[in-house]
Design goal:
elongated; 55% helix; 11 helices; alpha/beta
Amino acid sequence: MNLKIAIAEDNSFLARAVIEKLSFYNDLNFKFKGANGAELIGKLETNHNIDVILMDIQMPEMDGITATEIIKNKYPQIKIIMLTVFDDDENIFNAIKAGANGYLLKEITAENLHNCILEVVNGGAPMTPSIALKTLNLLRNPVIIENTDEIEKIKLSKREIEILEQLSKGLNYNNIAENLFISPSTVRKHIENIYKKLQVHNKMEAVLKAKKHKLI
């Protein structure tokens, strides 16, 4: 077995530490790293022949939970293990909801990381013991889960929803402007307002969040 591994990690020192842990095992083949979720997704478009992704959570431009949801929608066969320092209920719940197959803390040893990668490939859901306990508590207390998923009521105008629908089809500003009989600069202004209201940073995040909350 030769498992192909990719990493999403913005801290180059921590990334090197993980790559070193992987290098101890001949059955693990490190392929590439992204400094954030968006960069990793870009590299996957060139080569998505990957078995396991080790995904950090807090990264600039696109966080690991958003990236996990996007990757799982596009490449459901790839296993994703969150590898993070965050052990709070909200991140655990949101990562699992996004489709993560495992959740590990960065303090993990090389041997345990290797075992967890093998476990996830064989259909398991590896978790650091303290994370597994918190996950059980989340399942036992659904009220906590509901509270972590609350979001302020998002109010978009009819025009903003029309533009979001156009974005979801992969159209650019000029195409949208032609379809809606408005100028590209007006489209850009609407999209800026959409980003603010949805609290996102790019088109893909905006479309995903809008679909998630049934706005489009």
